[in-house]
Recover the amino acids of this structure.
């Protein structure tokens, strides 16, 4: 493991050339100089065949197991497919912390899962992993690791240090020491620093901090991320319903959750339905994007029907402002929905304040709507369109903006109420509804005025 | 400081009622039971007058200083405006770590800044803060704190422990111990655990880890966030150009950066130009949204011009599919731009691979375009539109999707190349361009065919 390296295109091309020429000794030297995260980044940028060759050159078993954790799901799957259950157990699982091990086993096919479990030699490790596999992936239990250092409240600091030496083998990074009673109930915590700076015969219960924040194992992982972020926690203990200590979640696991969540919301808003990256294949990218495009098309066909209902032939000049009305409805709807989705996801918007938020959006919609409709009135008339058409566009725009703002607020709040991901309401979905609704308002007003 | 509390609307209304009845002793009890982060959340949800009353009831000076850090900028400004420079120095700054203190002073007006600095009694604290104020807010130097524990490479563990006791007063959480040489150059680090478990006469240089990741003070804060996330770091040392240890950045500071960045990208994509939250005022929300709406309107006016150029009166049925063409161009453009923006922001897309990414988007565009254009051909003809119109819509749709995909990829990559935030290219901007372009393609093909 080493310092960070800048992995750019040139670097990857050099590695590719070395792989093609089978310069394994040179590659082994490179790997020895690289940090695990950089090895993973290089593998992500190689073809499957090259990736396998490169991966097999990692000499240290612990390193090659850890690299797997840093990879995307599909890359990991490719690298694991050639390994037997026994190899996975001995070379990968035994070298990983319980949370990472459980993640990897959880991804395997059901029959392979059991086979791998049966090959883990360290019985305690196997039982810990099997405990973790019981929790749903998106809960605190699914995030936590079993590795932690715990001491009994009645011990003194000397006993603590002794016990810690015993436990510390399994625990890579000690953030904090948990204090439990005889029933394993979590009572408090103690920092290493405190242990280091206190007299050796003091009992733990006298020096522990008792104001602790913990979560239940069933807590949703987004809530866990919000709690760790809000209270600035580096590590968070997980307890069962009786308050007994089960495991701990570290901030690095949660950073990924928070980031994935934000990226997912963003992708939803942009009309991308699966978690994709620019490095994914053309087919994956197409598949992730097609569903929203089909929704957009359906909306477009509805739009065509709406236009068809009205007598466009007599008022064909109305057609000129179709794009403007449709676009503005979509834009305003997306803005409103984005504010709601973001407020819900970072917990700053409380569910139950639906009515208050709608009133506020009504205000924003009216204000934006009036400004825009006045500008468009002047602009359209100034550009030489008839006064009738200019007034039609202006009034319609106000109505469309207000409706779109209310719709964009109401739909995600309603989805959330029924436990559906509110981010669904952003992006093409809301745009499409507002497009159709906007056209209807526009033509209806147009026919009344013109 | 205490356990976490669920702050919901009912809770806030109860607090409001207590404030209005001036039940200060009851409120003081409540505050004593609350975690700092929860006190801050309550204050964010109160009116300015109520917030000031509530804030002044926080008995512990260290707590009231820390609450300020957790607040939004404008709330903090409101609470600080009544305090004199001397009060800010004595009650707030003296109770905060250097990084937080520097953030607060950095937000003050220029003349107040100097006055507050002159009132800080702890000379060392003042000089540390003044060092930090030299760094730009969005760099590693602007994020770091000066508080850290460092030991000399030649000391043994006994000397280390002695020195740590001296330094530990200033450092709230000890994540790691930095090892430096006589010139303060960062050589390695040591965990408390290692110090705890090693024999007392061993020299530090023999037990330190030397594979360390550090950043320069001038490094951009988004890069710092990416580095900490990639290498799973809880704390990251900051050095100057000569490798001398300047400070440390902890993961909680960086989590905010990563989150703000993701939220900013999302807001940009949704057409919101300032950092707003659902709790902001109607006017703030309006102002943040208006600029993009104006861009959308401008696009709409261009669209009207494009439609006006063509002889719509003769082919008025073309108007029916204007919404479909415009919407699809917008949707595809947003999808493509989102993938590029996200790839750039999490560093998975390398700049320099523009050409490769464009080729890939061409593939995705062609694939999506062909699927959509075949469906629309069948659907339009099936719904009774003329074969000419159906073919026009189908061919235009293919062209629009391919163009929008290329545009959506090209524009953010180009912006990034010139160091402009690529997120600008998502949302209303790209939609508007694609709307106009799409209409042009559509009518041009329509006139050729019909």
């Amino acid at each position: 493991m080493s310092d960070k390296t800048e992995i750019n295109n040139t670097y990857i091309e050099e590695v590719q050339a070395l792989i093609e020429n089978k310069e394994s000794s040179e590659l082994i030297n490179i790997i020895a100089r690289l940090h695990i995260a950089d090895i993973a980044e290089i593998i992500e940028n190689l073809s499957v065949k090259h990736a396998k060759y490169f991966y097999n050159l990692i000499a240290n078993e612990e390193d090659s197991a850890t690299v797997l954790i840093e990879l995307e799901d599909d890359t990991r799957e490719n690298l694991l497919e050639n390994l037997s259950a026994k190899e996975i157990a001995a070379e990968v699982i035994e070298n990983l912390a319980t949370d990472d091990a459980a993640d990897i086993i959880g991804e395997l096919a059901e029959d392979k899962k059991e086979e791998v479990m049966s090959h883990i030699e360290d019985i305690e490790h196997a039982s810990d992993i099997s405990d973790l596999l019981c929790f749903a992936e998106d809960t605190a239990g699914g995030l936590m690791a079993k590795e932690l250092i715990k001491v009994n409240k009645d011990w003194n600091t000397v006993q603590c240090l002794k016990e810690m030496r015993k436990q510390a083998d399994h625990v890579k990074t000690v953030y904090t020491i948990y204090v439990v009673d005889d029933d394993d109930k979590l009572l408090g915590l103690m920092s290493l620093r405190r242990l280091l700076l206190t007299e050796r015969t003091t009992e733990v219960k006298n020096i522990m901090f008792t104001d602790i924040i913990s979560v239940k194992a069933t807590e949703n992982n987004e809530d866990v991320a919000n709690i760790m972020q809000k209270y600035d926690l580096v590590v968070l203990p997980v307890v069962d319903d009786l308050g007994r200590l089960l495991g701990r979640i570290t901030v690095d696991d949660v950073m990924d959750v928070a980031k994935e969540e934000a990226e997912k919301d963003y992708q939803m808003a942009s009309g991308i339905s699966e978690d994709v990256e620019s490095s994914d294949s053309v087919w994956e990218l197409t598949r992730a994007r097609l569903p929203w495009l089909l929704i957009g098309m359906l909306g477009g066909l509805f739009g065509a029907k709406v236009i068809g209902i009205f007598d466009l032939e007599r008022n064909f000049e109305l057609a000129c402002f179709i794009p403007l009305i449709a676009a503005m409805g979509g834009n305003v709807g997306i803005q409103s929905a984005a504010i709601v989705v973001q407020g819900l996801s970072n917990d700053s918007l409380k569910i139950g304040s639906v009515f208050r938020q709608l009133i506020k959006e009504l205000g924003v919609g009216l204000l934006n709507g009036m400004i825009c409709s006045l500008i468009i009135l002047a602009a359209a008339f100034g550009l030489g369109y008839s006064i009738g058409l200019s007034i039609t566009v202006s009034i319609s725009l106000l109505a469309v903006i207000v409706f779109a703002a209310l719709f964009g607020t109401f739909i995600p709040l309603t989805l959330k109420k029924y436990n559906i991901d509110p981010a669904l309401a952003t992006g093409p979905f809301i745009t499409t509804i507002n497009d159709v609704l906007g056209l209807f308002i526009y033509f209806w007003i147009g026919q009344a005025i013109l």
In short: The mean pLDDT of chain B is 86. Residues 282-449 of chain B form a domain with the Tetracycline Repressor; domain 2 fold (CATH 1.10.357.20). Chain B touches chain A through 123 residues (CB under 8 Å).
